[in-house]
Design brief:
- The chain is of the alpha/beta class.
- It has 16 helices and 21 strands.
- The strands form six sheets. It has a seven-stranded mixed beta sheet, with helices on both faces. Strands 8-7-6-9-10-20 form a six-stranded mixed beta sheet, with helices on both faces.
- Helix 9 links the parallel strand 11 and strand 12.
- The model has no long low-confidence stretch (mean pLDDT about 95).
- GO terms for molecular function: aldehyde dehydrogenase (NAD+) activity.
Length: about 525
């Protein structure tokens, strides 16, 4: 068994490391070798109950929820610094856990630290938004002063995916903590190690017990009980559309909201006035980054007919030159898929593309990379299909692997129509030398994120989320903080005058007496 970069961990509940109540553990498999290298606790509903109870006690104590944003910001910045200090170890752990190339994993750790720092600033800004100097709402009546307070929702359940294990958890944990919420985090069982290390970072930072709890385990045994738990104020989920539906229904059973960042089948449109070399680079980045396992991947590619031959020629050459090797090697640009199940799913889609008549331009199986062992590992070469038709599964369904489906178009209107003809609406992209065309297309695309002359850049300062079957709600930026805040109206009567809707008792008696005298005979 290869040595794990981090020590074995238990569940983190109530500020302590505790074994799972049923005493069960799961192997962690290195997708590059298919061999186990450590274990994680297999939490169950009993552990979820304990975590929610710990978070509830912490929230009700007020030791976190009723503090200032300035106070909470110190802890967030301390966590950010701990992530920076442990960056290399965390990145190596994540690469061994999910197959992400080491250069990408280190980049992710930088983003994790930046995100915690950003929400530390948001927590501090929240003090001013709730303070006495915050502007009142003009309600058109001088007798009333109306203000708004933003308060922590309560205990929140956070369910996160395996493709960006620590970063996706941070997208939820950091704003939730900044808002004053207490959290129960359930990471994907396919990549939980760095989320347990996040708990260790929080412990090192002195985060009060119960504010952050981490329960590892399967979706059925831990995720489902968490999403349906009546003790939660909200559930935040990132994952597939199918699982997202179940999470939303479970939360709705308790009349609780669920924000959902779900799948996608995003489209990149390349017009014939684009710089071919730059466009090919972005097309590859949009489809093969993180081994193609990205919800926002621009895995549908529409190329205008005039530039298609030159574009596809270069795309084939560049895709076949991608450095596929041990993901712990510097310069690796494509690693293995996360698990055997995902590996078989992607190969099934590739077979479907062939069966339905798409032309395989390159890839389609295990990469012929000399740096790879002859057997072992969940490797799929960068794969490109051309001649893809709208009815084909590889065009319509989310594959979540390094598979790019290409079609040709003639007019701008046709391109926009075909891009929007999808059940998903997470992201889209346009590459053109014409600024007006880029503006028109970005406005016409039905999605939550549009990239112009690029694909996939993401910043913690800007909103992230989609429409249609890609979910609802927004993460990141100030919108990410609002996810975990409740808005309270506080209205104060400021006039010195009596409200005067009802007459005082003495006046009522005088009125009644006067009415009686008027009714008497002279």
């Amino acid at each position: 068994m290869a040595e794990c970069p981090v020590p074995p961990r238990q569940l983190f509940i109530g500020g302590a490391w505790v074994p799972p109540i049923k005493g069960q553990y799961m192997d962690v498999i290195n997708p590059a070798t298919e061999k186990p290298f450590t274990k994680i606790p297999a939490g169950t509903s009993e552990d979820v109950d304990a975590a929610v109870a710990a978070a509830t006690a912490a929230f009700k104590s007020g030791h976190w929820s009723r503090t200032t944003g300035e106070y909470r910001a110190k802890f967030l910045r301390a966590i950010a610094q701990k992530i920076r200090d442990d960056k290399l170890v965390l990145a190596k752990t994540e690469t061994m856990d999910c197959g992400k190339p080491i250069d990408e994993a280190e980049w992710d750790m930088d983003d994790v630290a930046t995100c915690f720092d950003y929400y530390a600033g948001q927590a501090e800004a929240l003090d001013a938004r709730n303070g006495p100097s915050a502007p009142a709402i003009d309600v058109g009546m001088a007798e009333f002063e109306v203000r708004v307070r933003r308060e922590a929702l309560g205990v929140v359940g956070l369910i996160t995916p395996w493709n960006y294990p620590l970063l996706m958890a941070t997208w939820k944990v950091a704003p939730a903590l900044a808002a004053g919420c207490c959290c129960v985090l359930k990471p994907s069982e396919l990549a939980s190690l760095t989320c347990l290390e996040l708990a260790a970072a929080a412990e090192a930072a002195g985060l009060p017990p119960g504010v952050l709890n981490v329960v590892t385990g399967t979706g059925a045994e831990a995720g489902a009980p968490l999403s349906a738990h009546p003790g939660l104020a909200k559930v935040a989920f990132t994952g597939s559309a199918a699982t997202g539906r179940r999470v939303a229904l479970a939360a709705a059973g308790n009349l609780r909201p669920a924000s959902l960042e779900l799948g996608g089948k995003s489209c990149l449109i390349v017009f014939d006035d684009a710089d071919v070399e730059k466009a090919v680079e972005w097309a590859m980045f949009g489809a093969f980054w993180t081994n193609g396992q990205i919800c926002s991947a621009t895995s549908r590619l529409l190329v205008q007919r005039g530039v298609a031959p030159a574009f596809l020629e270069q795309l084939k050459k560049r895709a076949e030159a991608i450095n596929v090797c041990d993901p712990l090697t510097r310069g690796c640009r494509l690693g293995p898929l996360v698990s055997e199940g995902q590996y078989r799913r992607v190969l099934d889609y590739i077979q479907s593309g062939k069966s339905e008549g798409a032309q395989l331009l390159t890839g389609g199986g295990r990469p012929p990379a000399p740096a790879l062992p002859p057997r072992g590992g969940y490797w799929v070469a960068p794969t490109v299909f051309t001649g893809v038709q709208p009815h084909m599964r590889i065009w319509r369904e989310e594959i979540f692997g390094p598979v790019l489906s290409v079609a040709v178009f003639d007019s701008e209107a046709e391109a926009v129509q075909r891009a929007n003809d999808s059940e998903y609406g997470l992201a889209g992209a346009v590459i053109s030398g014409c600024p007006d065309r880029c503006r028109r297309v970005s406005e016409a695309l039905e999605c939550g994120i549009v990239w112009v002359n690029c694909s996939q850049p993401c910043f913690c300062y800007a909103p992230w989320g989609g429409i249609k079957n890609s979910g609802h709600g927004r993460e990141l930026g100030e919108w990410g903080l609002e996810n975990f805040l409740s808005v309270k109206q506080v209205t104060k009567y400021v006039s010195k005058d009596t409200w005067g809707w009802y007459s005082p008792p003495s006046q009522q008696g005088e009125q009644q007496e006067g009415q009686g005298q008027e009714g008497q005979s002279p």
